[in-house]
Amino acid sequence: MDKMQEIVALQKKFFQTNATKEVNFRIAQLKKLESLLRENEDFLHEAIYKDFKKSAFENYTTEISLLYHDIKEAVKKISKWSKKKRVRTNLVNLPAKSYIIPEPLGVSLIIGAWNYPYQLSIAPAIAAIAAGNTVILKPSELPINTSKAMAKLINENFDPNFFRVVEGGVPETTALLNQDFDKIFFTGSVSVGKIVYQAAAKNLIPVTLELGGKSPAIITENCDLKITVKRLIWGKFLNAGQTCIAPDYVVVHKSVKNKFLELAKKEIEESKFLVEEDNYVQIINDANVARLIALIDADKVYTGGKYNTDTRIIEPTILTDVTFEDNVMKDEIFGPILPVIEYEDLDAIIAKIKEMPKPLSCYVFTKDKEYKQKVLNQISFGGGAVNDTVMHISNSNMGFGGVGDSGIGAYHGEYGFKAFSHYKGILDKPTWIEPNLKYYPHTKSKLKWIKRLIG
Questions:
Q1: Catalytic residues
Q2: pLDDT tens-digit map of 312-347
Q3: I need a surface site. Which of 245, 304, 334, 455 has the fewest CB within 10 A?
Q4: CATH architecture, domain defined by 3-211+405-424
């Protein structure tokens, strides 16, 4: 038995003890995790700063605070989420009771992403633990210091048969995907998501895929342009654009395009991304720096466009006069480059967006209810916002997930609990009565009564 097989086998053995099915056990483990995070905040801040200069401010607001929220919500609501739920019994089965029992799937594999390495690794683990599963967590190897930090905190403080971090790159991930898990949860690119899905299919393993895509922001002629720009620039250049739900590109009505560009440039300047210390993060590695630089068409730069390959910094950059045929519009940008496309007819631009793969997010900025409903009803996407960007992820009452190329399944709050659970339907019948209609021998009289009852 190789290392990965042994790790999974030991977790399967532990799961079969039924320890994780006890609600008090789950709550205790989550509280322990929260304490570890709080006691080691500075350690976590230092690790992520070493990886790509993410400040304590951004690390807390965009990662750690969300984990605290998830833990507190789960601890408060696990008992409710875990209860069996009575449902109506249909006429054919009366007299009887019917109910649904949530049960954990078993041993779960969680493969995290590099752009928000704590949040996108630990948040799914919180959901898995809340639902009563054991967890093998494989963080992204790109931010090596955060990977090591999570491995240290979790592996030194939790029973590895219950919760374990496995570090490594492609070989380790491939070895894990060859194992027979009860659930796989992956966050990352569409291309790798397809590999994960294919690997899971071999053993019919249920999966949740949190992917990405080119998320549009539609700016109509009657929006509040000032607040639109403020919210959009923040959402786009947060984490230097390395956010799966960042506005990937903007389509702006011709009548307000020039004013939008002026305000956007001013907002970038006032945000002082590159002036204030720790106000902007690095691109994760040299390969991504080179990829992003290749997308900057110097002839279309409205503002920004400069970069430093030594420090892995690319200025917040706006490209104008962009078309859907440009290179920057072929794949998700995942960096601080914002293409701006002009439009005149909303119906035509909606039709163009619908020709593309379904995005993870979509944003519409407008005061017009008809425009809003048209965008929300006609464009298929994972989730989004009206007159805002990114912040929908902070509401755990809404499931977060993609559709089509942008993902399969959802999580956050109870949606995360459901992602790692099976809902077992039970019909509970008494024995003091037993109608004879369904039993042999079949007769015309019985069929007549069955038709009366069923219709």
A1: 210
A2: 999 999 999 999 999 999 999 999 999 999 999 999
A3: 455
A4: 3-Layer(aba) Sandwich (3.40)
